[in-house]
Amino acid sequence: MSAFPGSPRVLKGGIVLLDPDQFTLLPNGIIVLQYNPDTLSRTLKIKGAEEGGDRSEALRLTGPPVETIKLDAEIDATDQLEAGDATTLQFGIAPQLAALETIVYPASSTLQNNFNLAQQGVLEIMPMLAPFTLFVWSASRIAPVRITELSITEEAFDPALNPLRAKVSLGLRVLTIDDLEFSDKSGSLYMAYQRQKENLAGKFQGGTFSALGISGIS
Question: Which domain of life is it from (predicted)?
Fold first, then answer.
């Protein structure tokens, strides 16, 4: 029981993995961050008209900005070990780390199938599809993303050298309508993300000219 019964329940951030063809949840396709990171860095690279172009194009946008997200998450086996969790006792946090790592690996079955096709003389094999990845950071921020960077620092080990504590650095790129098909589920997921931003922006109460020390724009 919580020592502070009146305190709000803290939600967790995480990653949801969908089948890229059917957009159904993959087995074990929800990866919840054990501890929310203290900071989350976002960078938006604006897609605008080229410098030196026509002056009439100066304010035009050519598409949604390229948004990148970076965060550091911690994974620790302490709580599971205290609870006597059998998997953690045997493997430490290796299963959690592997669940993250395998997002960016093509499935071994696909690699084997492609090899078999190559042995049969198939000339062209399509690039392998990764899971369709959603980054969830509250109900108001659910973004389709591609993992662009994954760095893992293992910091403690058990006698069998299973990792017990690690820091995971994630780099994500939000997939926009420029990357996805507008008319299918992937595009609708992005559009929902952008519309939520617009809804939040509509709740912002703008300032006044007097706060800027001016009476208006003439």
Answer: Bacteria
- Tell me, yes or no, whether 216 lies in a domain: no
Rounded to an integer, what distance in angstroms lies between the CA atom of residue 176 and that of residue 145? Answer: 9
Residue at 116 is within a domain: no
Q: What residue numbers bound the domain in which 175 lies?
A: 14-47+60-106+128-200
Quick check: 93 pLDDT over 70?
Answer: yes
Residue 140, in any domain of the structure: yes
Do 27 and 140 form a contact (C-beta atoms < 8 A)? no
State how many domains the chain has. Answer: 1
The DSSP code for 105 is: S
What is the dihedral sign for C-alpha 127, 151, 149, 191? positive
Which pTM does this prediction carry? Answer: 0.86
| Distance of alpha carbon 83 from alpha carbon 27, whole angstroms | 25
CA-to-CA distance for 165 and 183, rounded, in angstroms? 43
Pair 164, 77: CB distance under 8 Å: yes
Q: Is residue 79 included in any domain, yes or no?
A: yes
Taking Cα atoms as reference points, which of 45, 38, 42 lies closest to residue 69? 42
**Contact in structure between 46 and 6 (CB atoms under 8 Å):** no
pLDDT in tens, 20-72: 989 999 998 999 999 999 999 999 999 887 766 677 777 888 899 999 999 99
